[in-house]
Amino acid sequence: MATGVPPQARAAQVLRRWKLWLIPGVLSALVALVLSLLYMGGILTPSEHLHRMPIALVDADAGPPLPGQSAPLGAQVADAVAAGTPPGQVQWQRVNRAQAQEQLASGRVYGALVVPEDFSRTVAALTTDQASARPVLLALTNPGTGSLASSLASQITQQAAHRSSAEIGRQLTAAAPNAPATARLLLADPVDVQVQQGHPIARHTGIGLSAFYYTLLLVLAGFLSANLVHNGVDTALGYADSEIGPWHSRRPTVPINRTQTLLVKMEMTAGLSVVTTTMIMLATIGILGMDAPHLPLLWVFSFAACVTVGLGVQAINAAFGSLGQLVAMFVFIALALPSSGATIPLQATPSFYRFLGAFEPMRQVAGGVRAILYFDAQADAGLTRAWVMIAVGFVVALVFGFAMTSYYDRKGLHRMVPTPS
Questions:
Q1: Which of 33, 11, 8, 29 is nearest to 20 (CA)?
Q2: Where is the DUF3533 domain (predicted)?
Q3: Comparing C-alpha atoms, which of 302, 212, 237, 265 is closest to residue 397?
């Protein structure tokens, strides 16, 4: 007997509709392709994409010059190091030892190569009976700039030091043709290249990676919290269905325009950022013991970063609707991670990532977090830039979000016709 209830569709019937597959299939393929290109394209060959990597070069050699030469040997070494690097790869900053230490302590250089004060005297002694030690070149690392960045700089400085040792060895061997065989072996490669930490960081810092993962937590917390607020508010106002397991409901639609809805979401996002910031610090510092100086400053900076990311997500969701979460994912995660400079320095990535790093939010937040955690919260260690860019992002999120919702409201593009309660 007919009941008036239409027959229910079967899964097989639905799956045979090719239009059902079209949009999800195209978007899934594009997302997988673009994510693969973005993430793998920035990490595969960092040494081949070096571009003006800042490394300090210190010539502290006080002489005296070797016989027949007018200047201490350190000056020749420094000149040869600067000239021996392929153009554009390294930005050698020729400074004194105190200036190099200051640059290491503020994260402005990734490492340093130092010619010590007694270098010429020690080299000259090798061809006499006065030799008591091998001459030394110091390769200083800066783990606070990130383990890979510091490692790349260390490789560059060590290679330069070994090239200098080989060149000095040729000069010494030519100057002492009658030296015994064992002595000639020493003269052929006379310099001892020693690697030291130029600016040590604390023990519980993940070898310089804690700043990156802490930054990632802030961005993810802001992103996820904003999306939870976005979906929760839409459900509470009756503009989205609520489904929890098998239970489905829809609340009466509340008559409210887009601008007021965005205001509600942004205020809730800002309020909840207090909670997320506190929980992140409680977990990472209080429970796990991450080394973190300047706790009040770190909390304020973390809160500002979470709020700015969250407001940006709300603005994008308001502008793009159901596609907003995908767009926000690309802005704050997909494009931001490979251009953050927190794991692989931007100077070792293709130019596209260096371009993104100029404005992508994760890059700015990572610079501020790194300055607070590793470089004594110095303004020129990246903290000033981070604050400025967070402020810019905050303003852009507000202006963009409310400009779009105001435009939609003026055009009468309402989300849904309200139904009586």
A1: 11
A2: 29-391
A3: 265
**CA distances for 350 relative to 37, 182, 346, 356, 357, angstroms:** 12, 47, 8, 10, 11
- Provide the residue type at 273 as one letter: S
Residue-wise burial string across 322-335, b where 16 or more C-beta atoms lie within 10 A, e elsewhere = eebbeebbebbebb
> In whole angstroms, what is the distance from residue 235 CA to residue 149 CA?
46
Q: What is the pLDDT of residues 208-252, one digit of tens each?
A: 999 999 999 999 999 999 999 999 999 999 988 888 888 888 889
Cβ atoms of 347 and 336 closer than 8 Å: no
Q: Which CATH fold topology does 46-197 show?
A: abc type-2 transporter like fold (3.40.1710)
Give the pLDDT confidence score for residue 421 in this predicted structure. Answer: 47
**Cα dihedral sign for 384, 389, 395, 397?**
negative
Q: Name, in order, each residue with C-beta under 8 angstroms of 331's C-beta and a sequence gap of 6 or more.
A: 312, 316, 360, 361
Q: Helices H, strands E: what count in the chain?
A: 14, 7
**What is the C-alpha to C-alpha distance for residues 342 and 366, in angstroms, rounded to an integer?**
6
Prior bond of 64 cis (ω within 30°): yes
Q: Which amino acid is at 144?
A: G
* Contact predicate 167/80, CB 8 Å: yes
Find all residues with CB under 8 Å of 404, minimum gap 6, and list them. 315, 318, 319
The per-residue pLDDT for 15 is: 87
Check residue 133 and give its pLDDT. Answer: 76
pLDDT at residue 130, rounded to an integer: 62
Neighbouring residues of 151: CB distance < 8 A, sequence distance ≥ 6: 141
By three-state DSSP, how is residue 283 classified? helix
CATH code 3.40.1710 region(s) in the chain: 46-197
pLDDT score, position 406: 96
Q: What is the pLDDT of residue 417?
A: 55
DSSP string over 110-139: SEEEEE-TTHHHHHHHTTSTT--S--EEEE
Q: Which residues of the chain have pLDDT under 50?
A: 418, 420-421
Residues 129 and 198: their CA atoms lie apart, in Å, by 34
Q: How many CB atoms lie within 10 A of CB 99?
A: 15
Of 109, 43, 111, nearest to 353 by C-alpha is 43
